[in-house]
Write a structure and sequence with these properties.
The structure holds two protein chains of two kinds. Chain A is α/β, with parallel strands linked by helices. In chain A, 25% of the residues lie in helices and 27% in strands. Chain A has three domains: 2-107 and 230-299, FAD/NAD(P)-binding domain, CATH 3.50.50.60; 110-226, FAD/NAD(P)-binding domain (3-Layer(bba) Sandwich); 318-399, Enolase-like, domain 1, CATH 3.30.390.30. Chain A has eleven helices and 25 strands. In chain A, strand 23 (332-337) and strand 24 form a beta hairpin. In chain A, helix 1 runs parallel beside helix 8 (285-299). The radius of gyration of chain A is 22 Å and the shape is globular. The relative contact order of chain A is 0.12. Chain B has no helices and eleven strands. The chains are: A alpha/beta, B mainly beta. Chains A and B meet through helix 1, helix 8 and helix 9 of A and loops of B.
Chain lengths: 400, 104
């Protein structure tokens, strides 16, 4: 069994292979020098740490040894010889496989404008360390992109004492996947922290000490960060002739167009059983690990489908946002106000089925109810809207 | 030597639920199982520092509110990735309607 990519999905696969009884060889190929580590802290805890942070390992040397995984660091797979069933590395090494899992993740999109080379980006641990050092107290920081990475970095940089401006081309922050009410709450929190949010405006160029907007305004910036989204890393799959469709095209069992090759995580799309087989590509921590678990089981001859409800979170300041399901599938919604200014919006489709829930609150205020909402979504429940909106009606009761 | 500490009234915890109990600079989670038995574990998830009392109890499982790590709160046993370190558990007894836990 060979796994290409040592992120969340790649790190989960060996655990699942062993859990399902695989006694043979497992080789894990990673591009970075480090053993697999967790990425969510890179924009948050690692940025705001008082001392230089250490990676949070998903599989450290001890665990790699306990799982009997051969980990090849600093290695790029450049081709898959599907006829010989061998992975070809950049240095010419050839790694034979019976079954292969591609978990190459996504790569940060690059800005295409004059001065773009000045923009820092965040995808790996070393970039996080560099960003933390760059965002020294008092520095002016311009962040291009008002999505999750941009806003989490804005919160972290502001907490470090930077003067932060976020520039978003869309009419508001978090246009993709986040409701207006939730985005408004997040925007207000940033503004309270002194972060300037500029929306509906593009960037013309980046100069040595400023970002120049499309209307000619100059935003002073000692540090410029680009967080403009990610694209699935499909170069290897493409070179190997695997079918692509918004990422590596998988079937319901996470199998690619080659029956001996599977994919999991941000790099792939698949027909989601819960949504009538609609093809989705998810960029989320839990989906990556769950897809890898499904793929691993199927690499050993199983026939499990990935049907988990999409779920992700973002932490900014003391606020925690969580979204379950696909809120954009909803045609109507209702809001449950909760203690301490928290709230959850429930999204229902035309038949009254709960299809999504978006919540925000301090700490873990909404975690439990979002989890219950996720269970309602998984069941295809059609809960009463008045009950959903009423803070005294326990969501657990609606599951029965 | 046992060191029994009063954590809460038995009615402070709903069936199939959990509450937080802080004592002497430490934090604990007190559970009431669907069969009305009470249990206690350390209060923070072993994966990241999140209060388990903010999580969801399903049957005999507590799910961490942060990243969905799951534990059997009767034994503290971690139920698989992302958690692999078990929770510490504490003996519990009921006395005059109070939930007592042994911190010894």
């Amino acid at each position: 069994m060979v796994i290409i990519g040592a992120g969340k999905a790649g790190a989960r696969a060996p655990i699942s292979l062993r859990e399902h009884g695989w006694k043979g060889r497992i080789t894990l190929i990673g591009e970075e020098p480090l053993a697999p580590y967790d990425r969510p802290p890179l924009s948050k805890a690692a940025m705001t740490a008082a001392e230089e942070p250490a990676p949070v390992f998903l599989l450290d040397d001890e665990l790699l040894q306990a799982l009997d995984v051969t980990f090849i660091a600093n290695a790029t797979a450049t081709d898959i010889d599907r006829a010989e069933k061998e992975v070809v590395l950049a240095d010419g090494r050839r790694i034979p496989y019976q079954k292969l899992l591609i978990a190459t993740g996504a790569r940060a999109r690059r800005l295409a404008l004059p001065g773009a080379e000045r923009a820092l980006m965040l995808r790996d641990f070393h970039e996080s360390v560099a960003l933390r050092a760059a965002c020294a107290p008092g520095r002016s920081v311009a962040i291009i992109g008002g999505g999750f990475i941009g806003l989490e970095l804005a919160a972290s940089a502001s907490q470090r004492g930077c003067k932060v401006t976020v520039i978003e081309a869309q009419p508001r922050i978090l246009m993709r996947g986040v409701t207006e009410a939730v985005a408004r709450r997040i925007a207000a929190r940033h503004e309270a922290a002194g972060v300037v949010l500029l929306t509906g405006i593009g960037v013309e160029r980046i100069e040595a000490d400023a970002v120049v907007l499309s209307d000619g305004r100059r935003i002073p910036a000692e540090i410029v960060i680009a967080g403009i989204g990610a694209a699935p890393a499909v170069a290897l799959a493409e070179a190997s002739g695997l079918a692509l469709d918004n990422g590596i095209a998988c079937d319901v069992e996470m199998r690619t167009s080659d029956p001996d090759i599977y994919a999991a995580g941000d790099c792939c799309s698949f027909p989601h059983g819960l949504y009538g087989g609609r093809r989705l590509r998810l960029e989320a921590w839990r989906s990556a690990q769950d897809q890898a678990a499904v793929a691993a089981e199927n690499m050993l001859g199983g026939h499990r489908q990935f049907t988990a409800v999409p779920w992700f979170w973002s932490d900014q300041y003391e606020l925690n946002l969580q979204i379950a399901g696909l809120p954009s599938d909803g045609v109507s919604s209702c809001t449950r106000p909760m203690k301490d200014d928290a709230f959850i919006e429930f999204h229902l489709d035309g038949e009254g089925r709960l299809v999504g829930a978006s919540g925000i609150g301090r700490g873990n205020a909404i975690a439990r109810d979002i989890k219950l909402a996720e269970m309602l979504i998984a069941k295809g429940a059609r809960p009463d809207q008045a009950a959903l909106a009423h803070p005294d009606v326990a969501l657990r009761g609606l599951l029965k | 030597m046992p060191h029994w500490v009063e954590a809460c009234d038995r009615d402070d915890v709903e069936p199939e639920d959990v509450i937080r109990f802080d004592h002497d600079g430490r934090t604990f989670a007190i559970y009431r199982a669907p069969d009305d038995r009470y249990y206690a574990t350390e209060g923070l998830c072993t994966h990241e520092e999140a209060h388990l009392a903010d999580g969801l109890v399903m049957d005999h499982i507590i799910e961490c509110p942060k990243h969905n790590g799951r534990f059997d709160y009767r034994t503290g046993a971690a139920q698989g990735a992302p958690v692999c370190i078990n929770l510490k558990t504490y003996p519990v007894k009921l006395e005059a309607g109070k939930v007592m836990i042994d911190l010894a």
